[in-house]
Amino acid sequence: MRQILAIFGIVVLGSLPSQVAAADGAGIPCTCRAAGVSHPVGAVVCLDTPNGPRLAECGRVLNNTSWTFLTAPCPTALLRQDPPVRLAAGAACFPAG
Predict the structure, then answer these.
(1) pLDDT tens-digit profile of 45-78?
(2) Which residues does 59 contact at the CB level (< 8 Å), separation at least 6?
(3) Beta bridge partners of 59
(4) Whole-number mean pLDDT of the chain?
(5) Alpha-carbon distance 8 to 2, whole Å?
(6) Which long-range contacts (CB under 8 A, 24 or more apart) does 27-31 make?
(7) Exposure b/e, 28-50, CB count within 10 A at least 16 = b
(8) Nearest alpha carbon to residue 59 among 71, 46, 42
(9) Which of 5, 15, 65, 84 has its CA 20 to 30 A from that of 96?
(10) What is the pTM of this model?
């Protein structure tokens, strides 16, 4: 009987580390989705929101992936956008001289 308990203990206790590793999600390729694209945990992307573009990082919250907004602005939001230039139709006008 002791041999059976010893073997059972080795089998059960020997498998615990692998079960603990699986429980914390290690080795599982978790991703966040944005605009139809998968991003790995740790990726930082610029997301379009109702308040304009915002920088966000993909992370884990409990057993789910989630976007966390950062305080830094999106790099593209800092670019200056000039209004489009409208050209007149027809021949170019030159001053009479």
Answers:
(1) 999 999 889 999 999 998 899 999 999 888 875 5
(2) 32, 41, 42, 65, 66, 67, 68
(3) 66
(4) 74
(5) 10
(6) 30/60, 30/65, 31/58, 31/65
(7) eeeebebeeeebebebebeeeee
(8) 42
(9) 84
(10) 0.53
How many Cβ atoms from other residues are within 10 Å of residue 19's Cβ? 9
Angle subtended at Cα 50 by Cα 44 and Cα 51, rounded to the nearest 5 degrees: 75
For 14, the token pair is 């020997």
**Are the beta carbons of 34 and 45 closer than 8 angstroms?**
yes
Amino acid at 55: L
Give dist(CA 45, CA 59) in Å, integer: 12
